[in-house]
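Late entry, evening session. Most of the bench is empty. Finally got around to the prediction I had been postponing all week. Sequence below, unchanged from the version circulated by S.P.
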Amino acid sequence: MSSANWRQRASPNEQNQRTATTTPSPSKNEPLAAPQSIADGRRLYVGNMPYMAKTEDIEALFARHGFKVAHIDISLDPFSGRNPSYCFVDLEAKEQADRALRELNGQDLLGRPVKIGPGIAKSSRGGSNRAPQRRDANRASATPFVFDHWYGYSDQGLRLYVGGLPSLPDQPTVNAEIRALFRDFNVNAVSKIIPPHPSKRALNGNHHYLFVDFGTAEEADAARKAVNGVSLPWGGRAVVSHARGDSKRVEERNRWGVEQGEGEVGDV
């Protein structure tokens, strides 16, 4: 890993092995077609959501008012368990979506009034045709990224801290660059990149960081030893160490669930 050729492309067989459990991202130059639900007028934007809201909470909100959800497009950060405060909901018919626009705006979702609007393609607002990169909620249970990914990874030695990083443009770039950095190892997941504390922002060098999970503690430790101190393509050297502690964000959802008599996240 200390060789100048560490970022050399892996062979096709190695690439297939490493990407077998991931969904390839479309080319940045390839526009994605808008979902059919937008053309049908069935897609709704749901904003001002609590960060702790889950797919089940959104479904329950619509069900309480007599709406059957066909699909929910929501992103959950695998390392914090939080959504970005909004999602998109497809109903079965335009008539239902029109009624939901009238009836659900301002309704309570885990203590916050949600904002309901039409799901509009970005191009109609003068932006790009490219749809946002989001995890399909219907596939979430088939990946290691949702409820079973918050606790235990640090305590088991499976999670590494990776520092000395610049601010990269988007999550697909972050994922690709970090997987290239750990190309000789089986990376389970890469977190979002995290900006440095304000006290470090005026310092020279790169101070962003993130977390990387591996399948075994032995592999994580081998990756730490191999990559720590390696020269990075953006300048500086990688700072790699074992992560300490797990995300506390999921606890806010647990507290809410206990207060409401739901039980904890681990029980769902």
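Two things to note before I forget:
Strands lie at 43-47, 69-73, 87-91, 108-109, 112-113, 115-118, 159-165, 187-190, 208-214, 239-242.
Residues 171-181 form the longest helix (11 residues).
Will write this up properly tomorrow.
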